[in-house]
């Protein structure tokens, strides 16, 4: 059977059109559209905001355009999950996640990068509202009075001022509170000048002519308000192994005493208190190489205790010479107030008054 060539050509063309039509219909049935509205501020209605905006799915995988009425449609979108963004040069928009099922069901929800599993559904068709204008430049900071008031330096000055003003008013009519404040007051830490001590130790260093009393902040504040005990600086000196540290150890409370006494190197600070006084005792080393450090503490002392070991008769003359050198020192002889000098025998702890100077 002979079929003419024109007839065969028509049959072939018809078969090709049939196959292509089935593919197009299958593709069209599996693709969907994403639609919604873009809402701009009322102040931008007269501008070309629609022509300057685009709708991006997955950062440009599918692109749509915004109409003059604010609506948009993105066609030929297969099923899956997409991030819908509005790209505009003047405004910022919150992105939205859209999930499309194989049957064409749409579900929109907020996009949360920090909590991707959190679901907050949104209505469909989409409604995307401008969040804020786009800022291309950082706003210049302006000076405010609160910046100065909240600065660290002002706060550091304000807190002591409030303490000095408020505490006296709070404790004026409450004796029990005053007693608690006295118990909480801290002792003054009157530490020596290290540079002066080293200069005096090696010799040739400059000597200060005026007394420089150093007082801790809280201790001075307590004394200023009349809440703390009176601070007394006591310098305890004497030859080595004369019993200075042993005497001070007995003046401590039982729970702070030490069982074994070791020789003092340089000096050691000992604190003890009575009902009305708080004592800072400087236990000075008595070895020959440390005796030139004693004079560094004379100026700030309210009392000086010279300890003599009554059993050490071989060095009694040495102790006598050191005591006379103490009494002739310029920081002792030039004191305007009264200074108490006591000598204590290290074996029997007898207190003998040597001199009271008016």
From TrEMBL:
SUPFAM superfamilies: P-loop containing nucleoside triphosphate hydrolases, Starch-binding domain-like. GO terms for cellular component: EMC complex. It is a single-pass membrane protein. GO terms for molecular function: carbohydrate binding; GTP binding; GTPase activity; metal ion binding. The keyword Signal applies. GTP binds at residues 238-245, 286. It is found in: Membrane. Mg(2+) binds at residues 245, 264. It comes from the Eukaryota. Its main location: membrane. The chain crosses the membrane at residues 148-167. Keywords: GTP-binding, Magnesium, Membrane, Metal-binding, Nucleotide-binding, Signal, Transmembrane, Transmembrane helix. Residues 47-156 form the ER membrane protein complex subunit 7 beta-sandwich domain. The keyword Magnesium applies. Residues 1-21 form the signal peptide. NCBIfam families: small_GTP. Belongs to the EMC7 family. This is ER membrane protein complex subunit 7 beta-sandwich domain-containing protein.
């Amino acid at each position: 059977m002979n079929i003419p060539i024109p007839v065969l050509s028509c049959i072939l063309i018809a078969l090709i059109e049939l196959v292509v039509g089935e593919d197009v219909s299958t593709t069209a049935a599996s693709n969907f559209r994403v639609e919604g509205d873009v809402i701009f501020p009322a102040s931008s209605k007269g501008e070309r905001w629609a022509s300057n905006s685009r709708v991006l799915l997955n950062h440009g995988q599918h692109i749509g355009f915004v109409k003059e009425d604010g609506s948009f449609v993105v066609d030929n979108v297969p099923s899956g999950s997409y991030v819908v963004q509005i790209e505009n040069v003047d405004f910022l928009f919150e992105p939205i996640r859209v999930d499309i099922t194989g049957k064409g069901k749409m579900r929109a929800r907020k996009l949360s990068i920090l909590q991707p599993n959190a679901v907050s559904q949104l209505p469909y068709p989409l409604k995307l509202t401008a969040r804020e204008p786009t800022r291309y430049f950082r706003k210049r900071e302006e000076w405010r009075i609160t910046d100065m008031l909240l600065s660290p330096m002002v706060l550091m000055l304000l807190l002591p001022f409030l303490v000095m003003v408020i505490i006296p008013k709070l404790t004026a009519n409450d004796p029990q509170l005053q007693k608690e404040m006295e118990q909480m007051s801290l002792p003054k830490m009157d530490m020596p000048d290290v540079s002066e001590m080293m200069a005096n130790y090696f010799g040739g260093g400059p000597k200060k002519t005026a007394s420089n009393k150093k007082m801790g902040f809280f201790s001075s504040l307590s004394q200023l308000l009349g809440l703390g005990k009176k601070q007394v600086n006591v310098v305890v000196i004497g030859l080595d192994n004369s019993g200075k540290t042993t005497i001070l150890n007995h003046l401590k409370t039982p729970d702070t005493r030490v069982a074994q006494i070791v020789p003092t190197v340089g000096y050691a600070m000992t604190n003890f208190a009575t009902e009305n006084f708080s004592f800072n005792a400087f236990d000075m080393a008595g070895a020959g190489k440390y005796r030139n450090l004693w004079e560094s503490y004379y100026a700030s002392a309210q009392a000086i205790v010279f300890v003599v070991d009554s059993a050490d008769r071989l060095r009694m003359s040495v102790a006598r010479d050191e005591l006379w050198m103490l009494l002739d020192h310029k920081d002792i002889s030039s004191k305007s107030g009264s200074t108490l000098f006591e000598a204590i025998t290290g074996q029997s702890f007898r207190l003998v008054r040597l001199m009271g100077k008016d």
